């Protein structure tokens, strides 16, 4: 587990964040950059941001998958929505 992602990953698990949400985040972030910066961002800058987001997303997904797996081994735990 990557220690730098530990705190964020615990928050994400509490919110039910799943790996597919990172794709949505990346798209939203890219759209925001284009709205705010317009043509001021070079292809090199866009590529660097995309690479950074991919690296951070991969690290968080890996950490969160480990935490979800550990959590599923606990008696009485569940994944996803649950009716009470």
What does it look like?
- The protein has 84 residues and is mainly α.
- The protein has a domain at 42-69.
- It contains 3 helices and no strands.
- Helix 1 (6-15) crosses helix 3.
Question: Which class best fits the helix and strand makeup?
Answer: mainly alpha
Terminal-residue CA separation: 32 Å
Instruction: Kindly state the number of beta strands.
Output: 0
Order of helices and strands: HHH
**Percent of residues in beta strands?**
under 5%
Q: Which quaternary structure do these chains form?
A: single chain
Poorly predicted segments: none
Shape: elongated
Largest sheet: none
Fraction of residues in helix:
over 70%
| Radius of gyration from CA coordinates | 16 Å
Care to give the gist of this entry?
The chain is mainly alpha-helical. It contains 3 helices and no strands.
Key phrases:
elongated, single chain, 84 residues, 3 helices
Topology at a glance:
Layout: H1 6-15, H2 19-37, H3 43-72
């Amino acid at each position: 587990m990557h220690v730098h992602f530990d705190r964020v990953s615990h928050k994400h698990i509490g919110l039910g964040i799943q790996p597919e949400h990172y794709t949505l985040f990346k798209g939203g972030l890219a759209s925001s950059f284009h709205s705010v910066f317009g043509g001021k961002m070079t292809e090199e800058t866009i590529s660097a941001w995309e690479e950074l987001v991919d690296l951070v997303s991969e690290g968080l997904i890996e950490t969160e998958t480990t935490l979800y797996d550990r959590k599923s081994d606990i008696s009485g735990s569940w994944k996803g929505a649950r009716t009470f």
